[in-house]
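Before relying on records like the one below, remember that each one covers exactly one chain. Contacts with other chains, cofactors or solvent are not represented anywhere in the record.
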Amino acid sequence: MMKKLFNFIASLAVLFSCDTFAMNINLVADKSNLNIGDTLELQVRVSGLDDQAAPSLGVYDLNLGFDAALFSLSAVHWGDSVLGNQLDLAGFGSLQESTLGANWLNLFELSFDSIADLDLLQAGDFTLFSVLLTAQAIGEGNLSLWINALGDASGNALSATEPNGLAVTVGGVEVPEPSSLLLLLGALAIFALRVRKLQYSR
């Protein structure tokens, strides 16, 4: 209920807001080529905010799109692995929800920090969350991110540039080719066996 109310208020605020401030929210992948069984780590990163200054990010509602025929969801890790969760700066926790759909994952987080703590302590660039996907079929899949709503420390709507998309290729497990040295040794062994056989047959 709280999430739906926020989305409604944020949508109205976007319609009537004349604020030209826009931050960036982008997808970052740890690899673009992987094999079946490998894990793909996707980070959703925020940039363009000022360090320890308003406006800060207090709430977000995002959808991550992926091909469920190629990938299965393994885990969601909230916050930045180095900076910590920048929506939980005072240790009060945050409201976190993740909902898995057919080809998408919705992620919602609402900070319980005070306006002052978010504005005075939040970094300008940080990771919102990381998603781990496991490759389960061969093919090329597109990963996308779309923004449902963003809000600052006071709950006022924030704008952001259009998120980027990514293309990831999943291949089969590679079988290493024998080296030329091994092939040469194999040929010599066969030749030696034939010579020995001829010697014994005389």
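Confidence is low (pLDDT under 50) at residues 7-19.
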